[in-house]
Amino acid sequence: MQPGDQPVILYGGAGVLYPWQGDTLFHEGEFVTNTTEKQAALPNSLPRPPSEKEELLRIWETPSGWRWITAVNNTVVGLLYLGAAFAFFVLAGLLALVMRTQLAIPENDLVSQDLYNQIFTVHGTTMMFLFAVPAMEALGVLLLPQMLAARDLPFPRLSAFAVWAYIIGGGVFFSTVFYGLAPKGGWFMYPPLTLTEYSPGDNADFWLLGIGFIEISAIAGAIEIIVGILRTRPPGMSLDKLPIFGWSMLVFAGMIVVAFPAVILATMYLEIERSFGWPFFTAAQGGDPLLWQHLFWFFGHPEVYIIFLPAAGLVSMIVPTMARRPLIGYRLIVVALIATGFFSFGLWVHHMFATGIPSLSMAFFSAASMTVAVPSGIQIFSWIATIAAAKDRFRLTTPGLFVLGMLFIFTIGGLTGIMVAMVPFDWQAHDTYFIVAHLHYVLVGGMVFPLFATFYYWAPMLSTRMLSERLGKWCFWLIFIGFNVAFMPMHISGLLGMPRRIWTYSEASGWGPYNLISTLGAYLIGAGVLVFIVDLIRNFRVGQGGQLNPWQAGTLEWLPADLYSTRSIPQVSSREPLWTQPDLSEEVDSGQHYLPNAPTGARETLVTSVIEAKPQYVIQMPGNGWAHVLAAVFTAACFLLLTIKVVAPALVCGVLAILCGLAWVWELDKGPGKGPVDIGAGIELPVYVSGPIGHGWWAMVILMVVAGSLYLSYLFSYLYLWTVAPKVWPSDAGGLPDLKWPALSALLFTAGAAFFAVARRTLPAPGHPHLGTPLLVLLGALSSILAVYLAVGCHWQAGLRPTVSSYGAMVYTDGILTGQLVFTVLIMSLFVIARHFTGKLDRVRCATLENTALLVYYTAAQALVGLVVIHGFPRMIL
Amino acid sequence: MMKASKNPSSKQAVGTVLIALIGPLTIWALHFSVVYGAHHLVCAALAGNYVGFGMQTTVSVATVAALLALLLLIVKPDVVLRMKRDEAMPKNSRLFLTDVMRLLALLSLFGVLWAGSAAFFFPACMSLV
């Protein structure tokens, strides 16, 4: 603010509790956030102090040497993430070549049947879990902050944690194929084949614990992406101006939050049954193998779209640039992305058409399977229309070619998808190579081709040199021709009856020629990927100073950038700001837009409102560090040691992981001391907020959605198993615990939540700590612990055992699900208490307590629902 | 020139976004859950001559209710979005959210109709395999 400017009160600033929070400590009139009505054309004027840029570079510097692994900057972490995902793609591709070589001729014995089983399982698992989803999350981490002109995503250490956990866990999982410990049950791991009886040894456990762990890493990334897209857009980028890739990543992350908990629960069930004999999937004791299929495909089918939608978003970014015109049907594409995300959850049973479920149920899912084709078609037609309406001609550059290749291949995959959505056809094609062809047309066309387009299109953003157009076109044609040569014949071999997952076949089957052609095609694909790797080695050099905006694109990732992202955060007025604001690059780079400096002296970025992207506050972000890296290492070690049943060291690693996690988050709540700060245009913003406006609050709410989704999957399992085996449910009330125990448990859960609600109101003024708050927090946590102890203990006292029937297993699983939340509450409560005694918790600096309280409220709500179901439902059906 | 947001993350703003972006498809999801869940429960737990009729009635009621709700979103979006009260929201955002919600409702409408009509073409609990 300049002297003489009249401040206009907007709203409370640092630590202000807003009216909707129902607290009277601060009121609208008390403010630390001011603004002035300036008529200047741009938020900041020139000349800028020369030290600003140097300070930004110092603050955002990437550590050199071996300390590089402590880096959290999105460009470093994103590139590492993408590089690791591509490495897994190459490794899984090599396994595919081994399989194709084995199948090239009839009765081949290149690999044994057992090794072949391991190879196809690791191939599928790696491609789906270690390549496709991580590659898309990597692109989110890498590209989103640049497209949103944010300095970084809001939780940079969370991204780094997710990446390191994924690299370590994924690396160990993949390596199992080299020493005969890889799982053999297919990427979908159906029981009963994967139960201990039929899959002894640790092979299946590597899949269950390894993949479960990697999915937790994916959820961490998804939370980061959702909050990043909704809260760190540049001023002026209202929702209707959000780049399509932002929309697709928003839907992608939302789908991960809802879908992944189902398979995490399923892997929990299967691992518990394998390790402790709780019969979730054993029919003789009231379990059902189909429960796995329901939970797995509730995740597994959306997974296809989780992979496809971000890729579609990438295509929607490349097509307008290559067509030199805005995308046709922006709103329709947004609608299509959201609709596809939802409809994809109504398709899971179409993987189960051959399991004998009633025809009417199949009709519901068949209808949904066809419905999802409509939004997919909207996107395809929008791209075709944009290409057809190109200014001059659609540029047939390497990215453009890969986009056209994607349109051809994905459309064929979509058409065969419509075929297998029809139940009678599915019965014929089920478990044949027709399905192998279909899924590869969908996934390679829908994800791999857009990914290669992305490599060529966005490489200049990171590299000092562009990738070679000549090599790129060789790469495209080899992959495109190779793909069709490899997979088109599989439609025929499948229709001739060749089943999936067979390691060899007889010459009399007549499948030999088709398989030989497929194998030749697979090697052509390999050659194409090799050309790309050569291109990378020759031309990809990470650094600044490359060609700026070589494709003349319109979006913000092509602004001049350095380690700190853009020098200033632009004011945006259209969907393609670089096309409509021709001087934007110069203005941003000279620091004339928002936040051209680092007013807090540390890493920070701007938080804006959800719909209109109006500036709200400045996040103080954490920098590089060791804690999150070590947390990832110890978390991975804990899971992997558990896999090989080395329990004591695994628990030690678990404790170390928690301690590292606490050390990491200790630095996050930096308090309001350095605010408010001037970001330009006379706007002063707080650097600390709490409540619904804060990004931490948003992350906690999303985490609660994850927990809620997990619990809904549990409730589905409970009711499903009851419908399958009602005889193992109690037949009289005598075997059930007395109702006073669940009532007491419910009372304690409610009391725990109440203690936290009161604790929040007793927070002291800064510098005046008192014992009331920590005491209430401790009481709240202890109440919850006692409540879960009573909830579980009463069943044990009543004689119920989890190993006897699926009913017992489900009852104790409820205790596990609530117990793990209560354990988290305990850790967080001790953390809050520690912050109180170190003077870092008061009525202004209260985000840690607020977020812990949110989890406590959720835990109490889930526990109450659980008590009603566990104690009420058996009495209801008596 | 941009101003700092006056009521930046109000529950109303978040609610508006949620209703517009996920409201119509939530209706589709609820309808889908009800018809599939009811069908699974009926076929697993009940038997008798009236199962087919009961199933058709349940699906019909759920389908009509979902269609009415979706039609309301298409014809009277302001009733649910309540954006007229949010004077701070510019016209372009208001139009965008309204259009997106209507189009999503239209797609959902076809999804509901498609799934719901299945009850009139197939026997209630018979497996064809």
The overall strand count of chain A is 6
Mean pLDDT of chain B: 83
Q: Which term fits the overall shape of chain B?
A: elongated
* Helix coverage percent of chain B: over 70%
Helix/strand-derived class of chain B?
Answer: mainly alpha
Distance between the termini of chain B: 67 Å
What does it look like?
The complex is a heterodimer of chains A (878) and B (129). Chain A is mainly α. Helices cover 61% and strands 3% of the residues of chain A. Chain A contains 24 helices and six strands. In chain A, the strands form three sheets. Chain A has a two-stranded antiparallel ribbon. In chain A, helix 3 (113-147) runs antiparallel to helix 4 (156-175) and helix 22 (772-797) packs antiparallel against helix 23 (806-837). Chain A starts with 7 loop residues before the first strand and ends with a helix. In chain A, 58% of the residues are buried. Residues 1-40 of chain A have low confidence and may be disordered. With 129 residues, chain B is mostly helical. In chain B, helix 1 (11-45) packs antiparallel against helix 2, helix 1 (11-45) runs parallel beside helix 4 (91-117) and helix 2 (51-75) runs antiparallel to helix 4 (91-117). The relative contact order of chain B is 0.19. The mean pLDDT of chain B is 83. Chains A and B meet through helix 8, helix 9, strand 6 and helix 20 of A and helix 1 and helix 4 of B.
